[in-house]
Amino acid sequence: MKNKLLVLGIVVVVLVIAGANALFTVHQTKQAIVLQFGEAKRVIKEPGLAWKIPVIQETVFYDNRVLDLDPPSFEVLLTDKKRIIIDAYARYQIIDPLQFFRRVRTEATLRDRFGKIINSSLRRVIATVPLRDVLSEKRLGIMNEIQQVVAGPAESFGIKIVDVRIGRTELPTQTRQSVFSRMRTEREREARELRAEGGEEAQKIRAQSDLERTVLIADAERQAQIMRGEGEGGRNLVLGKAYGQDPEFFDFYKSLAEYQKNLVDSDTTMVLSPDSEFFRFFGSGGGARPKK
Known about the structure:
- The protein is an alpha+beta fold.
- Helix content is 56%, strand content 20%.
- The protein has 3 domains: 2-63, no CATH class; 67-177, Tetrahydropterin Synthase, Chain A; 247-292, no CATH class.
């Protein structure tokens, strides 16, 4: 009886261990392949609890999320004979784990083999464009073209290329110095042209301003002369009327104007005869002309 219980206990333990080894969990971020003696038997993509035959079967898990692939940078000769160093990266997703297992088995092997394919595709596409396109807004179109080129080979690895980007673009030292020197020369030439155009435009503006100033001054002087003439005419008319009404007062007024005009400074010296017409208002209160 004891032997039977012992055997039964051993069987239960073996079944428990076998059952534990037969069951495994597939997480949401994973997908699994069940292998039997190294040959794939089935693929499990749905998360949850799954089973396998203990001892003779094993499982391989692959990530089903978007992964990064960063191949080493390389140097390429562009169509305008300039060399640049390209550092690109790709983002991919394993969509066929069975095909992925048959081609590369591990992500490390994929990075090595498919990374070379990406660099080769980059080299073919970028070698057909000039440097200015790589550094301009056309860069996005170049990356889309590279993604389309690598999409075909990616299917044979069981992966889908989500995106391909050129992360860093550098010029070799010698090329960089040559490009910078040429860019500086080009900017200096453009600066000289802009300064020359600005100077020419400034001369035109100054000439136009001088012309307008001359016209304005001439017009103002003409208007001033007209107004002065009209004023003089009005003044003479008023003075003529005043002289007709009171000639003696008019003579007195003119004499005062002459005094003010000629006797301005305190050190003014005039040598005149006492009976001079200039002093006739000094000798008599009425300003009568002296009798001869």
